[in-house]
Amino acid sequence: VCRLLLEKKNQLAVLYPNTNGDRVLRISNLALQVSDQVANIFRSADADAIALSLLRKHGTNLASLPGKTIRDQLTQSVVNILYAYRDKCASSSAPGQLILPESLKLLPLYVYSFLNKPALRTKPLTQADQRIYEVIKCCDRSVTFYLGYLYPKIYALHNFDSPTIYPNPNERPGDVLDEEGRVIIPSNTPARQDRIEADGVYLFDDSEYLRLYVFPPDANSSQGIQTAAAQLFGLESPDDILSISSLPSLPESDLNVRVNNVVEQIRKWKNFAYQSVRVEYVERPSANPDILGMLVEDEIVENDSYTDYLCSIHKLIQQKYQ
User: pTM here?
Assistant: First the structure.
């Protein structure tokens, strides 16, 4: 039973049997602000919720509509939202400039990331069961989970001790901040291939798994990268990386302890299933489909790069003025 009050409050009542067989009633109340000013609506917009709402609305049609149709519908929804903002709130801006509301700057990126998922690809052809799995994942996962899946967070583990990136020696990634056990999390690496070093050690968080990729050091690798890999896994030589199968716990290794602290902190933040760490040795990162699929800002098969996608959105907005 769902009752929607037309003032400022929403009330949801659910009648269900509990584990003891008793019929119980759960009521949730939500108070929302109401405004007749378009600028206020855009100022308070939630990009995460809007993105997932659009993806669920159109993604559920994957079983009945071609992937190209759904891609076009999603892009048109983004165009309509940004056109409304430009027309009602930023009409004085230069015509040649793409204007994004501050609250919705990530909306095109989320939609673009979804367009690059296997469910909407036509090259190579995605199997039906994988497409259905993507639909189920889109519909039954939380906002936090799914947006983390759309735009994975990437951490460069070999840079943990870089004085250039982390100049404060008292605030190193993985250090424990206080008695509550809060840990300093490293800065994210943009999900682009040109920001991934071919001989680094990276932790990818795509909400499903924590994927620890080890890329092989070569003759041109810095000593810091080779040392980081050896300390992280307790190796006597970087050449022993091939024997890696899991992330060990090495109390005697400062870097290993800090990386494990970061892993545990990431798990604490998530209110869904436990994330296991998958360690994988990858000789050619640029040829690994799993890694390329998480570098969502790059061009993938039939889709343009994210920059090109923004340009196409801008052109469609300009066409609506003609």
Answer: 0.77
